[in-house]
Amino acid sequence: MWKFPPSQVELSLVDAVSKGEIWSPSHYREWMISHRLMPKAFSKSGGQNKRRRLLKDEEPDNHEHPAEVSNGGDAIRAEFIRELILGRVSEEDCPTWHDESGIRIGDAVIIGTFDLTSIDYDKPIEIINSSFESIIFLRNARLRQVRLTGCKVPSIEAENVHIDGNFELTLVRTGAISLLNAKLKGTLNLKGAVLKPENGNHIGPVLNCEGAEFGASALLHRGFIAEGEVSLVLVQINGHLSCSGGTFRNAGGKALHCNSARIGGSVLLREGFESVGEVNFVRSRITGNLHCHDASFEDVEGIAVELRSCQIEGVFYFCELRKIKGMLNLRDTKTKSFADDGTGWPGKNKLVLDGFEYESFTESYIDGAQRTVIDAKRRLHWILCQPNNDLQGDFKPQPWTHLSKVLREMGHSQNARFILRKRSSWRFHHGPRKWWNWIEWPFRLVFWGWLTGYGYALRRPIVVIVAIWSIGWVMFSVAQDTGLMRPAPAIAVLDSEYLERARAANSMYESFEPWLYSLDVFLPFATLHQESNWIPHDAGDISVDLRKTYPGLVKLPNSFQPWVSWAERELEAGAIKKWFWFQIVAGWILMSIVIVGFSGLLRREE
After folding, report:
1. Could you tell me if 277 and 254 are in contact, meaning their C-beta atoms sit under 8 angstroms apart?
2. Dihedral-angle region of residue 166 (phi above 0 means left; psi in -120 to 50 means alpha; beta otherwise)
3. What sign has the CA pseudo-torsion 137, 139, 145, 150?
4. Which of 214, 499, 531, 606 has the largest CB neighbor count within 10 A?
5. How far apart are CA 336 and CA 340, in angstroms?
6. Could you tell me how many helices (H) and strands (E) the chain has, helices first?
7. Side-chain half-sphere of 125: how many Cα atoms within 13 Å?
């Protein structure tokens, strides 16, 4: 038996349910008018005498019905709704059969605890623009479909609930929602919902879907606001996870916690998405794309975006971001393709890249968006955003090597070599050293670093060879004009008069060619019969007058004359002989580097 008999409001609800209509205060007023003014019509559906007995004879002595007193006739007891769902309203009191439309209520005040724990109801439940006095309990219930729109409720406890259709909580205002281990065959729709605990003292997530399974999508978007942690740990979503336009605030903690989630579609964090606190997808698997576009991530003291060991089978769009403050952790993250225009670079010491793998770079799908950064110099700044320990103390080569590999496979070979060269240079200059490394460091810097670009710039020694040969050509030309070249000692002619005659005849002595002589001096493995016939004079053998040799020098401004005098002194002091020996040594070193480098014997770290 009822503690209180059904009120007029609740009888009108029974009438609406039996007809498949939405109950509302207007329906209640129409019901009152029709039954008071047309008793015959009412008698057909249950009898006027029974109605009078329910509404008058069996009411408490004080004539106050709790539903009617609470809200001026618009209130409905939650326990009455439960009994109506369970079919426990006596046929003697009112009809108990339900239309296939199920329970539909609008603009009501529902008093008491709305407890549907462990019930089995195969028709929809829809409540619109209503206010709940107490918590909604759906624990262990089996329901067909639940829809709350524009309602206000202290909290919703729905652990282990099974819903065959959608669970829609659009525009709901509540303190917390628990869907722990829930199973939905349809969509979880929280469009425009606001989850904000009263007084801000709620313990635990404001939305707890840990271990839940959603047969379609989870929509936490378009005005969704959560003041506290949203936990999707171990959740399985067969469709998309859309947080586009949502706001997630949990400063100092996890704002969106999706650890080990399995998402069959894409994850959408775009269209003004905002998080204050950590966005966490550690060890999650995303079958579609991860869209981070037109979004804001902030956790100044911690990790703003945590994607460690996340598997993204589609494209990772991380572009056109509004803001990112905090660390971005991509350690061991794997994705098919990566769209990154540079707006998501969090700054120095804020980017973890070790183990981040991507097959290629791709362009943003947004028309007119900035292109993904391919330029090697800009990508170098991206790599240098890593923590100091990954760059210096415990150097991590993987981000450099993988970036180079992707650039090379995309056809950007020059950019790939640049990254590898910078990797070797950075490691050489900032890596740990033993005491003996300090001894060999200058030689490695010059011959391995500067001359060959750490094995990735083998054209550089060729440029140096050409430059030295050209300088030698000029030097030996000056030596010829000033008389600083003499026959080699092995065939020296002591009679200067005979030598002059031989030169004039051009038949008894090898002629001197400066460009060929410079090349002969430089080549250590071949002879052009210039070096063997000619050699520079020693210091002090001959005085030099450049102004006499080159009359045009006299016409130079007075400011250049000291330099001419300096050059004369250096030539008399044996500058040509010094250059001669320098060019021989440089030839041995540079030609050896070229031969070893192009033969593949010069090792490069791949």
Report:
1. yes
2. beta
3. positive
4. 214
5. 13
6. 17, 38
7. 23
